[in-house]
Amino acid sequence: MLYPWEFPTRESKIHYFPEVSSTMDIARQKARNGCPDFTIVIAGHQNKGRGRLNRIWKSAVGGLYFTLVLRPRIPVALSSRVSFLASMTLARVLCTFGDLDARVKWPNDILVDERKVSGMLTELEAEADQVNFINIGIGINVNNATGRFEPQAASLKELLGRAVCRRDLLDQFLNEFETRMNRADFDRVVSEWKKHTITLNRQVRIVTRQETSEGLAVDVDDSGALILKMVDGSLKKILYGDCFHQD
Ligand code: BTN
Question: Which of 14, 148, 189, 205 could anchor a disulfide with 4, C-beta 3.0 to 4.6 Å?
Fold first, then answer.
């Protein structure tokens, strides 16, 4: 259990549910009903956890599953920077909190030793090109077992050999992320994010439902798109997809 009173300054904005379908569903409802900026929906367990690209996100007890409702006053064009800011912040927090070498895989996965410890899902609603809300859903493998069928995943407990306090981890992430959001230095987000990624200068394969592209990941532009250098030397801009490091 994670109780709202364990986060004294945020108590009124934290909503904890032992079990939900997906924190994204609850958060969307709350956002549409006008909940305040930085509302947090947390679940002990999700029975319909959602991942990117319509995948299922397994949400076993012991992990940390939450969605943040954010209401930044920014145009839709800048919205991807909010998720870049969130993944960069989480990587930094995991480095200091757990003394781990946590890095970001494009766009927003957190890996340690090439194994995925966290994934992020973003949903947005806008009016007249201004963001109404951006919901950022984050799943972190904390004390749950990832199992031998998921060799590319790892939990913090598996990596560190000890259980990790989910309250302290969440508290640290929320504090750092909120400070950075308030600073709203969105111009520098992508360049800072680049310092925390392990995707650049690597051979990658990007898979979408429509196509698979292979190339050298040479840059990420201000919109968050990945720039690939293809075998024929041409540059290709990738807006979304599953990224697999090839080397
Ligand atoms: C991914 O890597 O594919 C993204 C995973 C996002 C999972 C989180 S857990 C909290 C929130 N609720 C969901 O149903 N999904 C996100």
Answer: 14
Q: How far apart (Å, rounded) are the C-alpha atoms in residues 100 and 86?
A: 17
pTM score, two decimals? 0.96
* Strands 39-46 and 14-20, bridge-based pairing: parallel
60-91 as b/e, with b when 16 or more CB fall inside 10 Å? bebbbbbbbbbbbebebebbbbbbbbbbbbbb
Reported as a single tens digit per residue, the pLDDT across 43-53 is: 999 999 999 98
Beta strand extents in the chain (DSSP E only): 14-20, 39-46, 64-70, 102-105, 109-112, 115-127, 130-140, 203-207, 212-220, 226-229, 235-238, 242-245
Q: How far is the CA of 140 from the centre of ligand 1 (A)?
A: 9
Q: Please indicate whether residue 24, judged by its CB atom, sits closer than 6 Å to ligand 1.
A: yes
Go through the domains of the chain in sequence order and give each one's CATH number. Answer: 4-194 (3.30.930.10), 203-245 (2.30.30.100)
Share of the chain above pLDDT 90, in %: 87
For the cut 80, the answer to whether the pLDDT of residue 184 exceeds it is no
CA of 138 to the centre of ligand 1 (A): 5
| Residue 69 Cα to chain centre, angstroms | 13
> pLDDT tens for residues 73-84?
999 999 999 999
CA 236–ligand 1 middle distance (angstroms): 28
